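lol so apparently i was supposed to do this last week
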Amino acid sequence: MTTTATAPQLNPKAAEFLAKKVHKLLIGADWKDAASGKTFKTTNPATGEVLGVVAEGDKADVDAAVKAARAAYEGAWSKVSPSERGKLLNRLADLVEKNAEELAQLETLDNGKIIGEAMKGDLPLCADLLRYYAGWTTKISGETTPVSVPYYPGAKFLHYTVREPLGVVGAIIPWNFPLLMAVERLAPVLACGNALVLKPAEQTPLSALRLGELCLEAGIPAGVVNVVPGFGATAGAALAAHMDVDKISFTGSTDTGREVVKASAGNLKKVSLELGGKSPNIVFEDADLDAAARGMFMGIFYNQGQTCSAGSRVFVHESKFEAMVGALAERAKKIRQGPGLDPQSKMGPLVSEVQMNRVLGYVESGKKEGAKVLAGGERASGPLANGWFVQPTVFTEVKDSMRIAQEEIFGPVVAVMPFKDEAEVLARANGTPYGLVAGVWTKDIKKAFRMAQGLKAGVVWLNCYQFVDAAAPWGGTKQSGYGREKGPDAVHAYTQVKSVWVDLN
Ligand code: ADP
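anyway here it is w/ adenosine-5'-diphosphate bound
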C-alpha cells in the first residue's frame, strides 16, 4: 500500500508491515475487520501520500474489545503472578528495543516527526517505561494500619489495605507521540494487573497496531491488550461512555477532555486527563543565556511544536530581550524542514492538513491582532508544498490578551514577550486557563525555587526544558487536566485501595 519519497531507506520489517492490505483491529487473540466493514486511510504528512488502510473501529468493535478485555481480566490475566507480569513487560521492552528502527520509521512516516527524535527520544523512553513498570509489578503493596476505634474501648483489630487493579482501562491517546503515549498507558495499566483497550488517534494508528503484534509475541495473554483504531466521535466516544470500562486515561485537547468527562458519568468510571497547555518558558537576566537559548528553541520546536508541554510563551527579561529574540528568530530561519525519514531534516511536517490549517489560522490571528512576525509565518513552499509543513514561526510585540498568547496552537509558533520583574512575570505566566508545565532560567537559586513554588503547573523545569522520565510524574493543574501519568503516581492511578478489617476480639 505504501509509497513514499524516502521508501528506499525503509527497514524491511517496516516495509513488510506497511505492505499489509488492511491493518486490522486487535480484539482478543484475533486481528479483525471492523464489524461495519469500514476502513479509513492514514497518510504520510510529509507527502500527502496514503500510507495504509486501517479497519475503522466503532461502537460495535469497542464493545467486542471491552468484552475481550473483561474476559482476560477475570480469567487468564488474573492468574498471572506479579513477577510473571514483570517478565512479560520486560519481554515486550526487549522486543521494542529489537524492533526500534522499524517502530521509529513507522512513527516517522505516520506522524511526520524526524527519525532522530523518534530513535533517540520516543523509542528509548518506551523501553524504559516498560522496564520501570516491570519493576513495579512486585512492589504494589498495601499497608497495615494501627486503627484505634474510639467507640469500642479495648477492642483489637487487624486492619490492612490491598492495592487492587481497577479492571478494564480504556486509553484514548493523541497523535503527537503515538507509540510513546500507547506504551506510557500500557506499561502501568498492565503492571497493576488491569486489561487495556487502546484507541489510538485516527491520524496515527500504525505504531499502536504494531505494538499490539509485539504484545502477542511477548506472550501477553490474548485480550489483555486490545487495539481499536477509529475516530473520536465514534470509537473514542463509545469507549469513554462504555458501562463496563472502569477507567479512561485520556490525553488530548481540553475540549475533548470535557466530552470524555461527560461521557464517563454513566457508570462513574474513573478518569485521568492530560490536556492542553500554553506553557511559559521564563528567561531571567541572570540566566546562562546560551543554555536558555537552547531551551527556548527546543521548548517550542521539538516535535514541530506538537507537544502539550511546548514552551509557546517565552518571557525574556527586558534587558536581554532584543538579543535573545533575535537569536531565536535567526536560528528558526535556518531550521531545515523536510520529510522525517531524511536524516538531513531537522523539522518535519505537522501531522495533518487539518492541523496545518489550524496552526496557520493562529498565525493569521497573530498577524491580525498586531503581533510582529520575526521568522516564518507561512506554510512552507517549493519541494515541501505537498506536505503539511509550517515554517518555524517567531512572534514579538505580542500582548498577553492575544489569542496566540492564550490558546494552545500545537505547532511551531512561539510568542516571545519582554518582562520587567519577578512578580510581574509570575502573574503573567500564571495568566492562562492552562497549567501543565513551566520553565525558568536563572542562576539565582532562591529566585528559581520561589518561581517553582509560585508557578501554577504540574511540572516545573529549572534551567532545563522538555525533560521527561518513566519515574517522574507527569500531568497538569487547572484546565490542563487532572491525575498523573508516569512514576509511582501511575501505579496509584491504575489501582484502588481495599480496606480489610479483622476482628481479633
Ligand atoms: P485533536 O483535535 O488534535 O485531534 P483530540 O483531543 O480531539 O485532539 O484527540 C485526541 C484523541 O481523542 C484522539 O484519539 C481522538 O480520536 C479522541 N477523541 C476525539 N473526540 C472524542 C470524543 N468525543 N470522545 C472520545 N474520544 C475522542
